[in-house]
Amino acid sequence: MIGGRIRRHTTGFPAVRYARRIPNSGPGGADVFLVSSLVIGFGFYQVGQGNIHRRAVRAEKIAARQAILPLIQVEEDARFVKELKKQLEEEKELMAHVPGWKVGENVYSSGRWMPPATGKLTVELS
């Protein structure tokens, strides 16, 4: 049977396909690059919008603090004066027996003015 069709002896099963047929396994490189670029760009946009919002919230908080700062300062000044009077009274009682002691006078003789401590004023006895 030269040039003719060869008749094979089969048992009724279809022929086995052994040729290499790899299916397309997804989008191409350009598509992946484009989608990735869009996702990254959207992410950067969202970060920028979040930064703008965070900056506005921070500015609002600073403005609110600046608005009530005089009230807070008045309260702190009143507290400081009250504590200072209390401390001077305690100093007067404790140093009553020391001759030449002047209540409220600076014990350091640096000749320079130093701002007073604004924290809790206490007399330490040791």
From TrEMBL:
It is found in: Mitochondrion inner membrane. It is a single-pass membrane protein. The keyword Transcription regulation does not apply. Keywords: Electron transport, Membrane, Mitochondrion, Mitochondrion inner membrane, Respiratory chain, Transmembrane, Transmembrane helix, Transport. GO terms for cellular component: mitochondrial inner membrane; respiratory chain complex I. It comes from the Eukaryota. The keyword Transcription does not apply. Complex I functions in the transfer of electrons from NADH to the respiratory chain. Accessory subunit of the mitochondrial membrane respiratory chain NADH dehydrogenase (Complex I), that is believed not to be involved in catalysis. Belongs to the complex I NDUFA13 subunit family. This is NADH dehydrogenase [ubiquinone] 1 alpha subcomplex subunit 13.
